[in-house]
Amino acid sequence: MTEKLKGEGEITIVQKVRRTCEECGEPAVKRATFLLLNARTNPKSSGYRKDDISWCSDDEIFYCLDCYTTTPPDDDYSWCSTFEVSDRFAHMFLKKETVDNPVLCESIARTLRRDAGMPD
Fold it and tell me: CB neighbours of 97 closer than 8 A, spacing ≥ 6?
């Protein structure tokens, strides 16, 4: 019989939460992306050797409407694109956080075992 691997069978609950403005903590409505200077010729940049770099990002900052700016985080970057919150770009404004609730995880595990016909 093969031994179980560490972590095998564990259940982790992940919740998607909206990103917040990095200036004031309000819900973010804009995502500003920045590229390293000379991105197309800079091997450290995600835009290196690419024709269309509008979707590339070496850094990003999330803002509310009041705090929004296209000022780069430091002198090594330049502004690239700004995305506004919408259904199309919802995935950009959500981050995954692990829910630390052992009771809920055990309850889900019990239900999954029961549905699979496994002993409790």
Answer: 14, 15, 16, 17
50 is a domain residue: yes
The answer to whether 102 touches 1, Cβ cutoff 8 Å, is no
What pLDDT digit, counting tens, does each position of 55-85 carry? 999 999 999 999 999 888 889 999 999 999 9
Residue range(s) defining the domain that contains residue 44: 16-99
Kindly report the length of the chain. 120
Instruction: Enter the pTM of the model.
Output: 0.74
* All residues at 6 or more sequence positions from 94 whose CB lies less than 8 Å from its CB, including other chains: 16, 17, 18, 19
